[in-house]
Each structure stands twice: as structure tokens, then as C-alpha cells.
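Handout, page 2. Input:
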Amino acid sequence: MEQFFLEHGPYIAYIILFLGSLVEGESVVLTAGILAYKGFLSFPAIIAISFTATLFADQALFFIGRLYGPGLLERKPQLKEKSQRVFELLHKYNIWFILTFRFIYGIRTVSPLIIGTAGIPIKRFVILNFIAAVIWSVLSCSAGYALGHFFGHDLEHMMEVAMKYQKITIGGIIALIAIIFLIRRWRRNKNNS
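Output:
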């Protein structure tokens, strides 16, 4: 791990953090928190980056929902199914839902789109989204930092073992994929005969 940061610096990690925070990126943010604890990344920087990315992504999805939401939902049946649960939660718990949707796995990405579609006032969403982004980024980065504090040595050892057996693991995964592919192909050929 140290070698990676010596060769590339923290910039690649910050870019990965930004991209991961654009979507449901809790695992990326937690990892960044662990790396901040270990001294590879700046703790204030990971909070600022994750905050900026999540705020930007959710604002963009809100405005997409506001402009194109109803038509988009009609064209995408799978999105329409997920949206029903979001609409129910939004109408029942309006403000609380906007403040907490980031913490609900599975509907986080679609929620700002649906909130925009539901016609929530722009000013209300912008203010609540800002507050929620602050809470999410501080809590998620702090949780990763705490994980680094409590389990840092164990995580480092696990990563060393994973790197040691990396070739065997990758080879096993490739072999498993090849076997699955061959079995499916054999079944397809058997059914076509």
C-alpha cells in the first residue's frame, strides 16, 4: 500500500473517492477514511471531496427528475417500480426522507430523481440536500476513520495476505468464469440438438 502512494501520490485515491461518492459509494468513503487514519489521505480532504461529489450528484439527479422525470418513469418500467416506494416515503416523511435517503441502501441513487419528479420546491431540496450531504460525508468518513483506528492492523494484514495470493485468487476467478461459460454453452448446445 505504501508503495502505491509513494509512486502515485494520493491524487488517484482522491479521484476514486470523488467518483465513488457520486453513486452509492459508502465502501469507497469508508476505505478513504481508513486510509486517512493510516496517514495516506487527508481527513478534511476526504470529507470535502465526498461532500462535493454527493451534493453534485444528487442536485443533478433532482434537476433531471424535475425536467424529465414523468417521461423517464414511463419509459423505464424497472425505475417506475423502485419509484413507487420512494414516492410513498417522500409523501409520508417529506423533510425527513430528503435528509435521510442517502442512508437507505437500494434507493439512494433514484431518490433525488423521484424527489425532483414529485415537484418538491427547488429551494427546499437545495437546503435539505446541503444539510444531508454534510451529515453523510462527515459520518461516513468518520466511520471509516474509526474502522482504521479499531481494525487498522487487521485490515493491513488482510490486504497483505490478499496481495500475496493475488495471482491464485485471480486465476481461480478466471477458471470459475470459464467453467460457468462452458457449462452454459454445453447446455445451450444440448437444448438446441
